[in-house]
Amino acid sequence: MASDKIVTLTDGNFDSDVISNAQPVLVDFWAEWCGPCRALAPAIDAMATDYAGKVSVGKLNVDENPEITMRYMVRGIPTVMLFKGGKVVDQMVGLVDKGSLKQMVDRHM
Amino acid sequence: MADAIRSVTIVGSGPAGLTAALYTARANLKPLLFEGLEAGGQLMLTTAVDNFPGFQDGIMGPDLMAAMRAQAERFGAEFRGGNVTGITLGDRPFRVATGDGDVETRALIIATGASARLLGLPSERTLLGHGVSTCATCDGFFFRGKPIAVVGGGDSAIEEATFLTRFASHVTIIHRRDSLRASKIMQDKARANHKISFEWNAEVTDILGAGGVEAVRVRHVDTGMEKTIPVEGVFVAIGHTPNTDLFKGQLDMDAAGYLVTHAGTRTSVAGVFACGDVQDHIYRQAITAAGSGCMAAMDAERYLEESGI
Fold it and tell me: Best mutation site among A50, A75, A96, A98 for testing chain B: the one with the most B CBs within 10 Å?
C-alpha cells in the first residue's frame, strides 16, 4: 500500500516536481514486473513518512516514463536517486534497507 | 524482550529455510523465521523453474517460493521481515539481534544462502544500474534492441544469456575458459540461438562508458590479445559468495567462506545447523537446498530432544 505522501512522478511533472523543487527529492525508479522493486516499496513508504516536510519522496514507473528513465540512464531497477537543487547528488542501485536510505539522505541534509 | 526463549530460529527464506520451517513447524517446535531483505532468496529473481520435481510444466520461481512459504505458515511457522543484524553464539541460549530487539533461541538453523558475485572492477561499481547488472529478469527490459554481454560460463550465465535474447539484439557470452560448466541441455539451447556468440578464454579487464556502459574490454588469456566489444549492457554471472559475514569468527568456514558442516547439517557449534547454499558450493539447486533444509530441521529436532529441552 503506497503512502499518500508519495508523489507519482511522470515524464510530464518531473521538471516541476523534482528539478524545480526547493526540497531535496528522493526518486524511486521502479516497475510492476520487478520483484526487488516490490520488496523495496515499504522502505520507500517509510522514508516518505519519516522525512515528511523535509524531503519529498516520489516514484517513477520506468515502463510508462521512458524520457526521464533515459535522461538519467537508468538501466537497472530498483534505483533510488537523491536530487538536490535539481541535480543528482547520490544514488543507490538494487534492493537496500531503510537504514541505508536514511544514511544516504542524512549525508546530504 | 517480551519474547520467551524460542526452540528454533531460522535465518533465511529460500528453499532451505522454508523447508526447515515446514519440518520444524510440523514437529511442533513453533519456528521463528527471519526472511531477510531478499525474502524468498535467489529463486525470486528467476523465471520458469523446470527442474523442481512435481511440476511437470515448470513453475515460476516466485510462485514456487510463495507456495513454500504458505505451506510452512499453514503449520504455524512465524515469519519476520528484514535482516538480522547480529548473531551471538558464545552463550546459550543463542542471541539473534534485529533492528527491533533481540531474540533468544536454543537451536539455530542458518539458511542465509549466497549472493551474486561481482568482477571487482572499479568501473563495474560506478556503472551498476547504468548497464552493469547481476539480474537479467530485473534489468533485461532496458536493453531492447541493444547489444549486451554476459560474463560467466555456468548454468546461471547461460540461462541469463538465453533469457536476454528476448530483448537484446545480440548477446556475447564472455567466458575465461574454452568450455562451459553449464548443463548440456542449456548449452545446446544457447548454441542453437543465433543471437548468441561466444568469446572464449577471455577475461574482462574493464567496462567502458561515462554515465552508461558503452563497451567491454577483454583480454584473451591464451594469447594476451586485448579487444574492445561494443555493448550497452554487461550482465555478471560469475558465481556466488556465501552470506556468512554474521558468523565470522564464530563458526568454521572453508577458504571461500562457506560454512563447514559435519554429520548431516551440524556446524562447529552444537545446536547450530546450516542448510542450502550457505554450506554448499557444489550442487546449489532448489531441490538440494530444500533437502538439506529438511535435514537441518530433523537434526535440530534431535538436538533439542537430546538436550532435554
Answer: A75
Task: Give how many domains chain A has, as a whole number.
Answer: 1
Rounded Cα gap, residues A48 and A70, in angstroms: 25
In this structure, is residue A1 part of a structural domain? no
Q: What domains does chain B contain, in order, with CATH numbers?
A: 6-115+240-306 (3.50.50.60), 118-236 (3.50.50.60)
Distance from CA of A101 to the nearest CA of B (A): 14
Domain for residue A69, yes or no?
yes
Contact assessment for residue B72 and residue B21, using Cβ atoms and an 8 Å cutoff? yes
**What range does the domain containing A56 cover?**
6-107
pLDDT of residue B18: 98
ipTM of the complex: 0.74
For B215-237, the pLDDT digits (tens) are 999 999 999 999 999 999 999 99
E strands, B141-209, in order:
147-151, 170-174, 196-199, 202-208
What percentage of chain B exceeds 70 in pLDDT? 99
